[in-house]
Amino acid sequence: MISYLKTKELTQQQLFELYEDVGWTAYTKDIEQLQQAVQHSLSVITAWKKNELVGLIRVIGDGLTIIYIQDILVKKEVQNQGIGFELMQQILLEYQTVRQKVLLTEEAPAIRHFYEKCGFTSADKGDTVAFVNLS
């Protein structure tokens, strides 16, 4: 059974294990910075299997006019069980009055399908344009 908890109080080890499991190693190169980023996020909802952190979604923004879904990740062993969808639904409910809900992710059919199922429209299919500066 998976339980969900709104918390920013996560150990470096818990974060390291989750982010490493999904291959987000750019974050784990500076685990202290990742922990601080999580603690400074607007909102963090976590998914737990017993005492193991298996999922997380975190949001940055002002919480009134815009939120940016910075991270949503679920450990490989429990993917495709609705955990990511539930994390997203909880965040969208928490910020239902916010007009702009934004995220940036890589392109892949399964990823596109997941976000469309969550109610998002790709910028290439809507009236918006996306820009990014990766320098």
From TrEMBL:
<dbReference type="InterPro" id="IPR016181">
    <property type="entry name" value="Acyl_CoA_acyltransferase"/>
</dbReference>
<feature type="domain" description="N-acetyltransferase">
    <location>
        <begin position="5"/>
        <end position="135"/>
    </location>
</feature>
<protein>
    <submittedName>
        <fullName>GNAT family N-acetyltransferase</fullName>
    </submittedName>
</protein>
<dbReference type="InterPro" id="IPR000182">
    <property type="entry name" value="GNAT_dom"/>
</dbReference>
<dbReference type="InterPro" id="IPR053144">
    <property type="entry name" value="Acetyltransferase_Butenolide"/>
</dbReference>
<dbReference type="Pfam" id="PF13673">
    <property type="entry name" value="Acetyltransf_10"/>
</dbReference>
